[in-house]
């Protein structure tokens, strides 16, 4: 039985007078990787940012429709946004470590959420870095600046930082677009590994990446969810002509 962690139905979003999402529907299933694909400017990142209300930071943004996390409407006035973003973490396109030590990057979130004991924090640092497949590379230099790491290591550090506060869902907005092929492969392997314990939603321009690592794929075009299905069906037997044309490179 597939359990839906996030349910989206009839969802619309405007930036001022410009409608960026039109009647979008999809479900995000627990412990699965869901990919969002489509040409630039089709609404993939906008939809992703709705899932933890990052779009609240954009002036003139308003939404209508249903976006539920664990059955609760995240746009309800009673939603605690800090708690929501603890449960639904975000990894951005460019690695954005804080200009502080590797250790301090990881302990920053737990400290905000009330963890103060040094032993507890040390345990979180080790667990998070191991989960992000970075521990072996940095365990002897935790007090060095995070900015001394390579781009791929910085992105894995950002993933570890997200994991430090025990999210349920990890949103990844083109997490490998700034990385070389080897670093990209490590992030892909990591995403597959993380789905044992977490639910992952990834926006990607790289269709091969979506085909390689995701269980479910949504194809978006001009703000609409054209098709949402199992990844193998989307890539091998799409129902919509538009999806097939995009997958086969005839447009986009």
Characterise the protein shown here.
With about 250 residues, this protein is α/β, with parallel strands linked by helices. The strands form two sheets. Strands 6-7-8-3-9-10 form a six-stranded mixed β-sheet, sandwiched between helices. It has a four-stranded antiparallel β-sheet with strand order 2-1-4-5, with helices on one face. About 35% of the residues lie in helices and about 25% in strands. Helix 3 runs parallel beside helix 6 (about 150-165). It has a domain at about 30-40 and about 80-215 and about 225-245: 3-Layer(aba) Sandwich (Rossmann fold). It contains ten helices and ten strands. Strand 1 (about 5-15) and strand 2 (about 20-30) form a beta hairpin. The chain has helices at about 45-50, 80-85, 100-110, 120-130, 135-140, 150-165, 180-195, 205-215, 230-235, 240-245, and strands spanning about 5-15, 20-30, 35, 60-70, 70-75, 90, 170-175, 200-205, 215-220, 225-230. It is globular, with a radius of gyration of 18 Å.
